Amino acid sequence: MLIIGIAGGTGSGKTTVVNKIMERLPAGGVGVISQDSYYKDSSHVPVEDRQKINFDEPAAFDWSLLFKHLNMLKEGKAIEMPTYSFLTCTRQKETVHLDPHDVVLLEGILVFSEPKLRNMMDIKVFVDADADERLIRVIYRDCIERGRTPQMVIDRYERVLKPMHNQYIEPAKRYADLIVPQGGNNEVAINLLTDYIKSRLKGNSL
Question: pTM for this structure?
Answer without folding.
Answer: 0.89
